[in-house]
């Protein structure tokens, strides 16, 4: 079945399993998910990605995520996160396209944070009563409004018990804010990535944004439309402020700067038209955090391996200035970037 | 035609290009199309070339040897281009060729790559004027002093020369890749379809086209469906159909509105919940749609089946034919190696009684709608000699009872795929494109349609 000359890798289940309660279903679902991610990303690397192929793969990814939602009892550790991220994935996969807006970086970090937050959600699902988070709710909550206050308290409780996941939340918040600057929207343009982080100390717009995003990272109730359209209107970012008292300092307490020295390669940011170099570097070196997740979680492992450019159709727009002709997957000058990173992290911690 | 017992299709084998031991990318055939009389057969390849074959007229000395197809003309239709705005190379691969009905001595065909559609005129020249006054035979200007009398140039026969010239270039109307073109029955207009839009053209006007279908969502984030194929109705110039990646067909009437986003009829088969898998949507994506010659039926091809639809019944297809159902349990592997995205074409015979489509391992399948019989044949040099009768092939499922000469599913060669096939409009002659080779098969015994 494998093309001639191709080495046979991890053999997929040969028999199509349509029954979610079957033990092979979950492994097949994960296999399909990881293969789809790889495929999509590789397809985007091509100078001319086929729109039909990309749409089909993206739809498959979405379906696989939805299937996960429908069978949370199968594997509590892994599937639930997908449902809350499924809509995320949809948004990030198909981000697009106001022409001439280089959304590629935005797109990537959206999906990165979406997926990064998944383990957090799963933790919440486990710690909260699983019954209160039925699959339907799980799926719907991804699309509906903010959490109830009660949920938030519970979420915070579970979040604070696990420093790894708070880091992931922090990372996702950073990424979100950075991507809003990177994509070059008029509102974000004057702000450098560093300045956006400095804004987090007070209850300013930036602070609210951070708080909101951090909560969302943990609460798992994403509002994809609002969040990822920050470039369109910064007013949306300020909208929900139910956790404005939270500061970034809380989030960053657990960051271990020693992790940053590790070279984990790049996150696979596509070249953005805006050229926010510092932001790109920061994003690249934040990947070590995601790698620190417990390896026992197979989902996050595959996440790490596949955290590259996630589906976006922005490259199909004729006027999009950032076509995916040369994804920046290599880190050219590690030494220089290491020094920059240290500098950046100092500022982060101080703020 | 094509059944194991009573038909004896003979092989009239023409290699597309001289034998190579390897497959040159540029030689891969990307489209095959007979003209309206079947006298001419055009093929387009990945290198942007078009080769036209012409059927030799039946010779009187051998009444049973029907005409064979020989190369008539070769020309470079499209060249690789570079889009400077997007820094992208535009492939010169010919995606589709469509012939115009013949209206005068010349033949016209439309050929398209991803972005540009061209109208080519193919004409013959078999006479040339001789006896000019001012020029000699080689074309050099004569010395005036040597001209003593006037003569009238006379047309003298010459060796047949086929001239091909581009008459129209319909450039860059499409943002996305053009996948279909279809000439209207009014012989004045044609349409071109890309992934998200369909445009209507007048054959004489190159700088303007009308957009008649646009399924591009306001936010590309909401994109979940693309157009995969489109065709005009063979008789009603206001009707056309387009297929989508979600397995739906939409029949549109241009009289209803200028923009035909709203369909007149939607053909969709409800999904079978017991057969659901992760790949249900991908395998339901329609790769080709063809109206029957009568205009009453539609033939569609998705990954595993070919379906015949009645235009009057939208709820489900009239007939469903399993092309290679043994692949259903292998979908995961086929997804991994990308074969699941292959776009197979399909074809009707002239009387709409038999449908044909390609498969893997250089197999192609024919289904007789009346007798419900089907046959699998192979197009390859090794398995058939010129003028030999094609032997029906069989694929047995892995582990199944295997007869001699059967092929097991696991030994199928998925690099040998027959994506493009064409059927002569009147006779039982088929053209099969197998990678870089073109095979033409004729059914000598049953040459007339029945």
UniProtKB/TrEMBL annotation, chain A:
Bias (Basic residues): 1-10
GO CC annotation: nucleus
Residue stretches making up the SERTA domain: 25-72
Coiled-coil parts of chain: none
Domain of life: Eukaryota
Any one Pfam family match given in the protein's UniProt record, by short name: SERTA
InterPro entries: E2F-SERTA_domain_protein, SERTA_dom
Leader sequence residues: none
Residue segments, region Disordered: 1-25, 182-203
Entry protein name: SERTA domain-containing protein
Species of origin: Perca fluviatilis
From TrEMBL, chain B:
GO cellular component, one term: protein phosphatase type 2A complex
Signal peptide: none
GO molecular function: protein phosphatase regulator activity
InterPro entries reported for this sequence: PP2A_PR55, PP2A_PR55_CS, WD40/YVTN_repeat-like_dom_sf, WD40_repeat_dom_sf, WD40_rpt
UniProt xrefs under SMART domains: WD40
Keywords from the named record: Repeat, WD repeat
Quaternary data: PP2A consists of a common heterodimeric core enzyme, composed of a 36 kDa catalytic subunit (subunit C) and a 65 kDa constant regulatory subunit (PR65 or subunit A), that associates with a variety of regulatory subunits.
Family to which the UniProt record says this protein belongs: Belongs to the phosphatase 2A regulatory subunit B family.
Entry protein name: Serine/threonine-protein phosphatase 2A 55 kDa regulatory subunit B
Natural source organism: Perca fluviatilis
């Amino acid at each position: 079945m494998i093309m001639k000359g191709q080495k046979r890798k991890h053999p997929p289940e040969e028999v199509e399993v349509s029954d979610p309660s079957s033990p092979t279903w979950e492994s097949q679902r994960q296999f399909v998910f990881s293969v789809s991610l790889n495929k999509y990303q590789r397809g985007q690397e091509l100078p001319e990605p086929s729109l039909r192929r990309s749409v089909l793969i993206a739809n498959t990814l979405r379906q696989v995520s939805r299937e996960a939602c429908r069978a949370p009892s199968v594997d509590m550790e892994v599937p639930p996160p997908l449902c809350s991220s499924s809509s995320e994935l949809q948004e990030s996969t198909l981000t697009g396209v106001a022409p001439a807006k280089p959304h590629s970086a935005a797109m990537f970090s959206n999906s990165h944070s979406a997926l990064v937050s998944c383990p957090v959600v799963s933790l919440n699902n486990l710690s909260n009563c699983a019954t209160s988070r039925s699959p339907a709710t799980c799926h719907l909550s991804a699309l509906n409004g903010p959490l109830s206050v009660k949920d938030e308290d519970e979420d915070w409780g579970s979040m604070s018990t696990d420093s790894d996941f708070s880091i992931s939340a922090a990372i996702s918040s950073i990424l979100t804010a950075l991507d809003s600057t990177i994509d070059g929207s008029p509102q974000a343009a004057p702000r450098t990535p560093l300045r956006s982080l400095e804004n987090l100390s007070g209850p300013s717009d930036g602070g609210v944004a951070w708080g909101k995003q951090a909560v969302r990272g943990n609460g798992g109730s994403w509002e994809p439309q609002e969040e990822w359209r920050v470039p369109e209107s910064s007013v949306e970012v300020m909208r929900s402020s139910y956790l404005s008292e939270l500061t970034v300092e809380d989030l960053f307490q657990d960051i271990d700067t020693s992790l940053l020295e590790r070279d984990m390669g790049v996150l696979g940011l596509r070249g953005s038209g805006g050229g926010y170099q510092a932001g790109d570097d920061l994003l690249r070196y934040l990947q070590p955090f995601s790698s620190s997740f417990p390896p026992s979680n197979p989902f996050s492992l595959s996440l790490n391996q596949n955290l590259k450019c996630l589906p976006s159709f922005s490259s199909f727009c004729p006027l999009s200035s950032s076509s995916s002709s040369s994804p920046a997957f290599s880190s050219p000058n590690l030494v220089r970037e290491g020094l920059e990173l240290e500098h950046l992290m100092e500022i982060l911690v101080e703020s | 035609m094509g059944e194991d017992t009573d038909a004896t299709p003979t092989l009239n084998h023409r290699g597309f290009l001289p034998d190579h031991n390897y497959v040159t990318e540029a030689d891969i055939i990307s489209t095959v199309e007979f003209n309206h009389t079947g006298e001419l057969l055009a093929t387009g390849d990945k290198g942007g070339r078009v080769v036209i074959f012409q059927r030799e007229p039946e010779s009187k000395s051998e009444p049973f040897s029907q005409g064979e197809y020989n190369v008539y003309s070769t020309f470079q239709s499209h060249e690789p281009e570079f889009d400077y705005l997007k820094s992208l190379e535009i492939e010169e691969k010919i995606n589709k060729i469509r012939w115009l009905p013949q209206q005068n001595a010349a033949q016209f065909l439309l050929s398209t790559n991803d972005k540009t559609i061209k109208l080519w005129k193919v004409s013959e020249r078999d006479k040339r004027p001789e006896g000019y006054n001012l020029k000699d035979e080689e074309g050099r200007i004569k010395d005036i002093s040597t001209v003593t009398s006037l003569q009238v140039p006379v047309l003298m026969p010459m060796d047949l020369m086929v001239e091909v010239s581009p008459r129209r270039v319909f450039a860059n109307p499409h943002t996305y890749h053009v996948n279909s073109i279809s000439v209207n029955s009014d012989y004045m207009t044609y349409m071109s379809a890309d992934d998200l839009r369909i445009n209507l053209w007048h054959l004489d006007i190159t700088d303007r086209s009308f957009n008649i279908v646009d399924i591009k969502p306001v936010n590309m984030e909401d994109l979940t469906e693309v157009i995969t194929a489109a065709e005009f109705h063979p008789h009603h110039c206001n009707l056309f159909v387009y297929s989508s990646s979600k397995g739906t067909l939409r029949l549109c009437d241009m009289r209803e509105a200028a923009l035909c986003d709203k369909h007149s009829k939607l053909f969709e088969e409800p999904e079978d919940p017991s057969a659901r898998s992760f790949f249900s949507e991908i395998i339901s994506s329609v790769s080709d749609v063809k109206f029957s010659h009568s205009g009453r039926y539609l033939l569609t091809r998705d990954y595993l089946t070919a379906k015949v639809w009645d235009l009057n019944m939208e709820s489900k297809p009239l007939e469903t034919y399993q092309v290679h159902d043994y692949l259903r349990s292998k979908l995961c592997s086929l997804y991994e190696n990308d074969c699941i995205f292959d776009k197979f074409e399909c074809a009707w015979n002239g009387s709409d009684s038999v449908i044909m489509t390609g498969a893997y391992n250089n197999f192609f399948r024919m289904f007789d709608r009346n007798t419900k019989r089907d046959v699998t044949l192979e197009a390859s040099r090794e398995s058939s000699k010129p003028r030999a009768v094609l032997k029906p092939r069989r694929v047995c499922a892995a582990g199944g009872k295997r007869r001699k000469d059967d092929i097991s599913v696991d030994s199928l060669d998925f690099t040998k795929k027959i994506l493009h096939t064409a059927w002569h409009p009147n006779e039982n002659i088929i053209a099969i494109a197998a990678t870089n080779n073109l095979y033409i098969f004729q059914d000598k015994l049953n040459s007339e349609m029945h």
